[in-house]
Write a structure and sequence with these properties.
Length: about 350
């Protein structure tokens, strides 16, 4: 069997993992690709990854959330146009799409409603093979997925984005792209409540950059003002959230303290959603994935759960070395591995 490349096409990042016939991850790609700015750069990125993968007659398994980008009028249009781009760039290779019922289909147009925003299904199916009891949490740059696992089975209440948002299985907050104005209307500053500016002045990437926690692989990040990613520039953007310039403060430490307050607000939101799943009877382990999983060990402890990083579970399958690991690109690896297993059984 030829190698499989699993693709997770997001609105802001393209992630890909090349898997050999034994399920080992040979190469990992994680690249910033803002689809909402147009599809040309997206196609260039896919073409470049395909060239780096090398070989002939590769098989490609695709999952996506990029259909949500606002350059598309509907999700169905997004699935169709992303599919057209992939078919053009990857012509000559086998191309299949992961669907809601965990089957792979070749035509993304007729069943687009089963393809969009299903990357969490792929990840959960793979994680459930390793985790018998607990909660799977994937904290990415934009969103957080929370899925309860019992008896090696995912126990989900919602399936569509709308349903998952309503039942606290999907939370639109992440460690890079979340605007700080979405975390609260008011924040404590020097012991006093202060209204926040409802402007896209800063993001959570600025917060964790200033706190020294942002993973190296997320640099450089897409800043709100288009400026650089130094700690001073992050402090300047965060200061604007409370109507100030960072030069007005008593040094960088003042803005580090403010960043920590924003981080606490975000982590409390994730904890609130996590506790909703623990209260339904979850015990055991929190299995963590995503570029923001550094937040999860302390949150797991606060819920009385042990913590297991998905990288430690998949360590024997990871042959590549680089800035990103399988935990950072879990949907891409999962869809490749699920495809490999299905194809091997044919």
């Amino acid at each position: 069997m030829s190698d499989v490349i699993g693709w997770d096409i997001g609105g802001a990042h393209v992630k890909a993992v090349q898997v050999d016939e034994g399920g080992r991850a040979l190469k990992v790609w994680h690249q910033m690709v803002p689809i909402w700015k147009g599809l040309d750069y997206f196609m260039e990125t896919v073409r470049g990854i395909r060239e780096e993968a090398g070989g002939h007659d590769l098989r490609h398994a695709v999952t996506m959330t990029g259909e949500l980008a606002d350059i598309f009028s509907t999700r169905a249009e997004g699935v169709r146009r992303i599919g057209e781009c992939l078919a053009r760039v990857l012509s000559g290779d086998a191309l299949s799409y992961f669907s809601a019922n965990a089957e792979f289909i070749e035509d993304p147009v007729q069943r687009s409603h089963l393809i969009g925003s299903m990357n969490w299904v792929a990840s959960t199916r793979l994680v459930a093979r390793f985790a018998e009891q607990g909660v799977f949490v994937d904290v990415g740059s934009t969103t957080t997925d929370l899925i309860r696992i019992a008896g090696n089975q995912a126990k989900v209440t919602g399936f569509s984005d709308a349903e998952r948002l309503a039942c606290q299985e999907l939370l639109y907050t992440g460690v890079a792209r979340t605007p700080l104005m979405s975390l609260a209307a008011q924040i404590d500053v020097d012991g006093h409540p202060c209204n926040l500016m409802a402007e896209h002045f800063a993001t959570t990437a600025d917060v964790y950059n200033l706190l020294g926690q942002l993973p190296d692989g997320l640099h450089p990040f897409d800043t709100a003002d288009g400026a650089g990613c130094s700690k001073f520039e992050s402090a300047r953007r965060i200061a604007r959230m409370i109507g100030r310039d960072c030069e007005e403060g008593d040094g960088l430490d003042e803005w580090v303290c403010l960043a920590r307050t924003f981080a606490d607000l975000q982590q409390e939101r994730i904890l609130e959603n996590l506790q909703a799943h623990v209260s339904t009877g979850s015990t055991g382990t929190l299995v963590g994935a995503g570029t923001g999983r550094f937040l999860l060990p302390s949150l797991a402890a606060r819920c009385g759960l042990g913590y297991q990083d998905i990288d430690s579970l998949l360590e024997s399958r990871f042959a590549a070395k680089g800035a990103f690991t399988l935990a950072d690109c879990l949907p891409a690896y999962s869809v490749a591995e699920l495809y490999r297993l299905e194809y091997a059984c044919r």
